[in-house]
Amino acid sequence: MTQMDDFTFNLLSNDEVIEINQDALGIQAKQVLAEDDKEVWAKPLEDGSLAVGLFNKGMFADYVSVSLEKLNIKGSPVVRDVWRQRNLGYANVSLTYKIPAHGVKLIKLTPVQKKEIKFTNSNPDGAFNPRQEY
Questions:
Q1: Can you give the residue range of the structural domain that contains 55?
Q2: Is residue 129 part of a domain?
Q3: What is the dihedral of CA 57, 16, 85, 130, to 10 degrees?
Q4: Does residue 62 fall inside a structural domain?
Q5: Within a domain: residue 25?
Q6: CA 48 to CA 22: how far, in whole Å?
Q7: What is each CA distance from 51 to 3, 5, 68, 107, 126, in whole angstroms?
Q8: Nearest 5°: CA angle at 88, between 77 and 82?
Q9: What's the per-residue H, E or C state across the chain?
Q10: How far apart (Å, rounded) are the C-alpha atoms in residues 79 and 5?
Q11: Is residue 112 part of a domain?
Q12: Residues 6 or more apart from 24 whose CB is under 8 A from it?
């Protein structure tokens, strides 16, 4: 670890990433979307928020998008860039980001008010169900 540059050290010691990994619910992320070289994975967290990873496995930068409906989210959650540890605003309909080749964006969606976002137990049209048993 003494040979690491600041970027690598900060990446590996990011407390928000570690909190997602060690979340008390212990629920693994589930794949929500797979299209060509793009994937979206989501994981419910104990505090009522949802961790979402948007992956670009392709050779070139590309946009990765997922609707809030596909994530079974109602309302407009706060969007936080977990890697950079800063809020990006609110999501209304979907999440769309340009992801570099072989890159990932890790975000956390947090309800503005817990009553505003509802993670449902139903799974219509293959939508993500955070409480579904695997």
A1: 6-121
A2: no
A3: 60
A4: yes
A5: yes
A6: 15
A7: 31, 27, 13, 6, 19
A8: 90
A9: CCCCCHHHHHHHCCHHHHHHHCCCCCCCCEEEEEECCEEEEEEECCCCCEEEEEEECCCCCEEEEEECCCCCCCCCCEEEECCCCEEEEECCCEEEEEECCCEEEEEEEECCCCCCCCCCCCCHHHCCCCCCCC
A10: 28
A11: yes
A12: 46
The pTM score is 0.79
Which of these, 10, 46, 49, 54, lies nearest to 27 by C-alpha position?
46
Give me the pLDDT at residue 131, please.
56
Q: Tens digit of pLDDT for each residue in 61-101?
A: 999 999 999 999 988 999 999 999 999 999 999 999 999 99
Cβ neighbours of residue 114 closer than 8 Å, sequence gap 6 or more: 48
> Which CATH number covers residue 11?
2.60.40.1180
The CA distance from 101 to 39, in Å, is: 13
Q: How many domains does the chain have?
A: 1
Q: The tokens of 119 are what?
A: 């993670």
